[in-house]
Structures are given as structure tokens and as C-alpha cells.
Write a structure and sequence with these properties.
alpha/beta
Length: about 300
């Protein structure tokens, strides 16, 4: 397989600079087929980073270049079927409900049907289910046809298949726009954020969470950091996420660590590609019947409110 047929050179997604230094060279497996490549882009993907990771010489942003072609990425997400991911939705809904409740209190937001939220890259709608349960009006956009259908049937949500740009929402239509574990997947985050700014009310809030490349977990784990994945095209730090949001018309009002709760067994399973001893830990956890125990963890994710 010639990977040049499936890849493209990317300029810096933040400053559009072309000069970079290599942080990690590409390491494509010789056995990887085109079909395997298409299956890489799913919500529960654990494909350890195999593309070249670089840092822009102008602004310092870390990103992939060359990277898989944008048309292949979009098709892969659109065709993705991911039952493994949705099994964790009860824990995600609980986490989202707690975080959104806390955020509403800090920002003095009173939930109600007049408050409208748009979730970009909403997967099967776990966040929107939590927001709806709190009383908000909700809409989601998601490339995966399968995810959209699951969320509609399971939760009765208004989920619209495609990208944000496919759906021409009205100017100032939403009180809140959210991107949960999405911005690092975007080919052109400035384009998406510009559209998010357009559909937000003047006093609206943008919520973004992302794997923080400048976090203590990232620095201490190095190449074993679990968020170094081929599906993650961009690696933000607090400085680069602030600069990106500022460029797109936003003012950061909060930046804090983000805590996630998932099943202990699922967390063990996702950790195995990085640390072999987790394979034994997973067996012990399952033998003790603890695989479905809720596990709250923080390994370098951050949340921005702007």
C-alpha cells in the first residue's frame, strides 16, 4: 500500500505556517490496508498515532502532516458504526449532566426550553440527552449516520447527519455551542469555529474540551499518552487553544481540567495498547466482577468556556 495515495500535506491549522519541526516521525504498519485505514476513524478508535506529528515553527501548534486526506476522513466518520462507544453512554450522560449543571451555576444560566444548545460532533447524543434532562432545548450535528439514528431512536433527540457547515442555522440562534472531544479531529477548526460564532447569540457561550498537549499527564507519559491517536489531527495547549479562539472572535472565560467517568473495564481496554500490564489488570478487574464499576479519571483533558 502506498500511503502517499491516501495522505496530504497540511499547513498549520492555526497560523497557516508551512515550516515545522518533527516531534514524532510516521510509523505506518506494513500490513495496514486501505480498508483498515477507513475503519480508523471511529469514536472508540484506539489506533495509536502512526502519522507524523510536527510543531509549527511560527506559533508552536502541534499537528499531523502529512495526514490522511480530508475526504477520506469525512467518509470514514460518515460510515462509522461504533456499538462499543455507545455502551458507555450512561456514564457519559452522568458526567455531562454533572459538568453542565456546575457550568450553569458558575455562569448563572437558568436551564429552560428558551435556552437552546447546539452540539457539534454529537456522536449518539449523550451530552444532548443530559442537557435535555436539565431542561434545555437541544440540536446536534454528527457525520456518522449510524450514530444519528441511534441517538434519535434511543433518546428521541433532534440529531442531524453531516457537518455544521451542511446545516445553515440562523444567525444568533443558539445560547450555547459545544464541541466535546471534537476540535482535535477537525481538518479546519477555524472554519468550524467561525460558523459556531455566527450561530451563537452575542452573549452566547462556546464550550470546548480537548486533550491538552501541555498537560502534566502528556509531559510525564510522553509517547505513551493515550490521546496520541491517528484520529487526533491537532494537539492544543492552553496557549494555542486561546490563540485559536481569539482569532475566531471568542474570549476565554474559563479553562480548567476535565474529569471523565467511564466503566473501569472499558478504561482498562483502552489503556492496553499503551501499557501491556493493563492486559493483566483487565483480567483481574473482570475476574472480580468490577468491569462495570464507574471509574472517574483525568489524564490531561481540559475544558474551555469562551
Amino acid at each position: 500500500m502506498k500511503f502517499s495515495e491516501f495522505t496530504e500535506i497540511a499547513n498549520c491549522p492555526l497560523c497557516e505556517g508551512r515550516e515545522y519541526r518533527v516531534l514524532k516521525p510516521a510509523n505506518y504498519p506494513t500490513h495496514l490496508s486501505g480498508k483498515d485505514l477507513l475503519q480508523t476513524y471511529s469514536s472508540s478508535s484506539d489506533h495509536v498515532l502512526m502519522d507524523q506529528l510536527v510543531a509549527c515553527k511560527e506559533c508552536g501548534l502541534a499537528y499531523l502532516s502529512p495526514r490522511v486526506r480530508s475526504d477520506i476522513i469525512l467518509k470514514s466518520y460518515s460510515d462509522a458504526v461504533d456499538p462499543t462507544f455507545v455502551k458507555q453512554n450512561p456514564f457519559r450522560i452522568s458526567t455531562f449532566g454533572r459538568n453542565l449543571g456546575d457550568l450553569s451555576r458558575r455562569q448563572k444560566i437558568t436551564p429552560g426550553p428558551a435556552r437552546k444548545i447546539l452540539d457539534i460532533g454529537c456522536a449518539s447524543g449523550a451530552f444532548l440527552k443530559a442537557a435535555s434532562d436539565l431542561g434545555f432545548s437541544t440540536v446536534g450535528v454528527e457525520p456518522s449516520r449510524w450514530m444519528c439514528e441511534f441517538g434519535k431512536k434511543e433518546y428521541g433527540l433532534d440529531l442531524r447527519q453531516g457537518t455544521l457547515e451542511d446545516h445553515r442555522f440562523q444567525d444568533g440562534e443558539f445560547d450555547m455551542v459545544t464541541l466535546w472531544d471534537v476540535i482535535e479531529h477537525l481538518v479546519d477548526p477555524k472554519k468550524t469555529l467561525a460558523e459556531a460564532e455566527r450561530v451563537l447569540k452575542e452573549d452566547g457561550l462556546l464550550i470546548v474540551n480537548y486533550p491538552d498537549f501541555g498537560s502534566f499527564a502528556s509531559r510525564i507519559l510522553g509517547r505513551k499518552w493515550p490521546f496520541l491517536l491517528s484520529v487526533h489531527l491537532i494537539y492544543f495547549t492552553p496557549a494555542t487553544i486561546r490563540r485559536l479562539l481569539s482569532k475566531c472572535g471568542f474570549e476565554v472565560v474559563e479553562l480548567r481540567p476535565y474529569w471523565q467517568t467511564l466503566e473501569l473495564g472499558y478504561v482498562m481496554q483502552r489503556a492496553i495498547p499503551y501499557f501491556a500490564f493493563f492486559r493483566w489488570m483487565e483480567k483481574i478487574v473482570n475476574a472480580l466482577g468490577m468491569g462495570k464499576v464507574p471509574f472517574r479519571y483525568q489524564i490531561g483533558q481540559s475544558m474551555v468556556v469562551a
